[in-house]
Specification:
- It is built from twelve helices and 13 strands.
- The chain has 382 residues and is an alpha/beta fold.
- It has two domains: 132 residues, Aspartate Aminotransferase, domain 1, CATH 3.90.1150.10; 233 residues, Type I PLP-dependent aspartate aminotransferase-like (Major domain) (Aspartate Aminotransferase, domain 2, 3-Layer(aba) Sandwich).
- Helix 2 packs antiparallel against helix 9.
- The structure holds pyridoxal-5'-phosphate (PLP).
């Protein structure tokens, strides 16, 4: 038998990564663990893919993405006199995951340091490790927004900073003033800013969201990552895209085509159909999450031993608990009590003492699951 040994980067990734392999909820358990819309993909999107397949659209597509899709996506990006967008600025990718992997592998190498404000979506740090770079975790402030002083200390010399906005796992929205302040900190540096805006259509009343591409002080360094997964309930279709400075786009396109070739042709036709949906379709999904968010806040705001910063966007609540127990242990105990959540430690060292719940679950599952969480983490019970 051959002693097959994975490459050292894989061994390093296995040592570093806290991302669990995801499995379906066992019978009787409710899952508040998945970052996955529970509503179906809108019918016109499915019909567009079926029609494309029937029409023989079954061959390789342009490796950067169908020109008509890229043209359409470019037309939706925030333009201003100093910056206009064309199809050449866009690469269609295998979801945001493919876009993030392409950008990190294209722009980060051994010796490069990448600042990640944490808790953060755990894929970012894993990709940096895979690329051979160094992860520089910078803890968020207590309100889960950026600690600008800590970032000012960490950013000099960093090759990249990565964040999501709205944020998975914290549910925080980094508004225009926060983005502008970041741009000012970076003035004169060569640091790229990767802004993963997967949840841009999920921003709750009272909170203002702005794309990093629309912020002048970030304009020349922002790499924008987007996906159809969350906005259009298309997680299984695997389609996303990226844009940013042309050299970054070209390098990322090269990585993406080396790893993946082109994205499925019929899926790109479906993506075009998603862009044609009336706003009301996406607004209806956003309304559903808004109601569930209210349910989460109501269920948790007075729960003894639990603390929630009310989610400003996305569909996550990042819950701090008072019990002195590692979050991975708490997540295991909760799974035994038939509610699946994610351990805060997955998202960085400051995530310890937290669990992440997703409210991309039915109201019934939310009520049942939250009651189980509250009962287990109540410090007034022994
Ligand atoms: C912030 C963020 N970015 C990217 C992704 C991955 O998206 P995709 O399905 O497009 O690969 C997720 C999925 O949960 C996410 O939460």
């Amino acid at each position: 038998m051959t002693a097959a040994r994975p490459a050292c980067r894989i061994e390093e990734l296995r040592r570093f990564s806290r991302r669990p392999a995801l499995t379906p909820a066992p019978p009787g358990a409710v899952s508040l663990a998945m970052g996955e819309p529970d509503c179906p993909t809108p019918a016109p999107v499915i019909e567009a893919a079926v029609a494309a397949l029937r029409a023989g659209d079954t061959h390789y597509a342009d490796q950067k993405g169908l020109p008509e899709l890229r043209t359409r996506l470019a037309s939706l990006l925030p333009a201003h006199p100093g910056r206009t967008w064309s199809a050449d600025d866009v690469v269609v990718t295998h979801g945001a995951t493919g876009a993030l992997a392409a950008v990190v592998l294209a722009m980060v190498g051994p010796g490069d340091r990448v600042v990640i404000p944490e808790p953060a979506y755990s894929l970012y740090a894993d990709l940096v490790v895979l690329a051979g770079g160094t992860v520089d975790f910078v803890p968020l402030g207590r309100d889960l927004h950026w600690d600008l002083d800590a970032l000012a200390a960490a950013l000099p010399g960093a090759s990249m900073m990565i964040f999501s906005n709205p944020s998975n796992p914290t549910g925080i929205v980094h508004g225009e003033p926060e983005l502008k302040a970041l741009g000012e900190l970076l003035n004169g540096s060569g640091t790229l800013v990767v802004s993963d805006e997967a949840y841009h259509r999920l921003v709750y009343p009272g909170h203002e969201w702005t794309s990093a591409l629309a912020v002048e002080s970030l304009r020349d360094r922002a790499v924008y990552v987007q996906t159809f997964s969350k906005t259009y309930a298309m997680t299984g279709w695997r389609v996303g895209y990226l844009t940013g400075p042309r050299e970054v786009v070209d390098a990322a396109a090269q990585v993406h085509r080396t790893l993946n070739g082109s994205v499925n042709t019929a899926v790109q036709r479906a993506a075009l159909a998603a862009l044609d949906l009336p706003d009301s379709v996406v607004d209806a999904m956003a309304d559903t999450y808004r109601r569930r968010r209210e349910l989460v806040i109501a269920a948790l705001s007075d729960a003894p031993g639990l603390h929630l910063v009310p989610p400003e966007g996305a569909f996550y609540g990042f819950l701090r608990y008072d019990k002195d127990r590692p979050s991975e242990e708490v997540a295991r105990e909760l799974a035994e009590r038939k509610v699946l959540v994610r351990a805060g430690a997955e998202y960085g060292p400051s995530g310890e003492g937290h669990i992440r719940i997703s409210f991309a679950a039915s109201e019934d599952d939310l009520r049942t699951g939250l009651a189980r969480v509250v009962a287990h983490l109540d410090v007034t019970r022994s």
